[in-house]
Specification:
Keywords: Apoplast, Secreted, Signal. This is Dirigent protein. Pfam families: Dirigent. One of its GO terms (biological process) is phenylpropanoid biosynthetic process. With 193 residues, the chain is mainly β. It is 11% helix and 45% strand. Strands 1-3-4-5-6-7-8-9 form an 8-stranded antiparallel beta barrel. Strand 5 and strand 6 form a beta hairpin. The radius of gyration is 26 Å and the shape is elongated. The mean pLDDT is 91. The structure holds 2-acetamido-2-deoxy-beta-D-glucopyranose (3 copies). One 2-acetamido-2-deoxy-beta-D-glucopyranose binds next to loops.
Length: 193
C-alpha cells in the first residue's frame, strides 16, 4: 500500500504519527502537577479519637511479641539495651484478652536507651473493624514504659487515614512482671480527611 502512495505522502504520515507519539510520551511522563484537595475527594479535615487496649503477649505457646535480636550487652544492661522485639499484638475494645479485636499492632519495639527503660516504637496499627477495616496508622516514637502516660506521634496513615497526623497516649493497664505480659490502654487522636 505504501508503495502505491506518492513518496511525500508517506513522509508526512510518518511525521504525524511520530509527533503525536512524542506528545503522548510528554503527558505520561509528567513528573508533578498541582491539584486541589477536592479533586481527590478529600473534603474537610476531621479529628477522630480512637480508644483500644494493646495486648503484648510474651508468654505461653502463642506469643504475639517475640525477641528477634539483641546486642552484645543486652543481657548485662539494666535496660536490656539493644533487644529488638517483633510484634503482632491484638488491639481490643476492652481490657480483657478475649475482648473483641478491632485491629493489630504490627512492627517492632526496641530497647533504645542505656540509662532508662525507654523503647523505640516503630509500628503500624492495622485496623480490622467496621469502616476502618483495611485502614492503618503509623506510629514512630519513644516510649518510656514506666511513665504513667507516654505520648507517641502518629506520622501517617492509609485508607481512611490518608494524610493522618496526630498522637497516641499510652497508659499501662496491667503488667505481669514475672512473664512480661502487658495490657496497655491507648487513646489516639488523629487529624485526617
Ligand atoms: C543472653 O541470655 C540468653 C538467655 O540466657 C541467651 O540465650 C543468649 O545467648 C544471651 N545473649 C548474649 C548476647 O550473650
Ligand atoms: C475486613 O476486611 C476483610 C478483607 O476485605 C474481610 O475479609 C473481613 O471480613 C473484614 N472484617 C470485618 C470485621 O468486617
Ligand atoms: C503472671 O505470670 C506467671 C508466670 O507465667 C503466672 O504464673 C501468673 O499466673 C501470672 N499472673 C497473672 C495475674 O496472670
Amino acid at each position: 500500500m505504501a508503495q502505491t502512495l506518492p513518496k511525500h505522502t508517506h513522509t508526512i504520515l510518518t511525521l504525524i504519527i511520530f509527533s503525536s507519539l512524542i506528545l503522548i510520551q510528554a503527558q505520561t511522563h509528567q513528573f508533578s502537577r498541582k491539584l486541589s484537595t477536592k479533586s481527590l475527594n478529600f473534603k474537610k479535615q476531621k479529628l477522630t479519637h480512637l480508644h483500644f487496649y494493646f495486648h503484648d503477649i510474651l508468654s505461653g505457646d502463642d506469643p504475639t511479641a517475640i525477641k528477634v535480636a539483641e546486642s552484645r550487652i543486652t543481657n548485662t544492661s539494666r535496660t536490656g539495651f539493644g533487644a529488638v522485639i517483633m510484634i503482632d499484638d491484638p488491639l481490643t475494645v476492652g481490657p480483657e484478652r478475649g475482648s473483641k479485636i478491632v485491629g493489630r499492632a504490627q512492627g517492632i519495639y526496641a530497647s533504645a536507651c542505656l540509662t532508662d527503660t525507654r523503647l523505640l516504637m516503630a509500628l503500624n496499627y492495622v485496623f480490622l473493624e467496621g469502616k476502618y477495616n483495611g485502614s492503618s496508622l503509623s506510629i514512630l516514637g519513644t516510649n518510656s514504659v514506666f511513665s504513667p502516660v507516654r505520648e507517641m506521634p502518629v506520622v501517617g496513615g492509609s485508607g481512611l487515614f490518608r494524610f493522618a497526623t496526630g498522637y497516641a497516649l499510652a497508659k499501662t493497664h496491667k503488667v505481669n512482671f514475672s512473664n512480661g505480659d502487658a495490657v496497655v490502654e491507648y487513646n489516639v487522636y488523629v487529624l485526617h480527611y
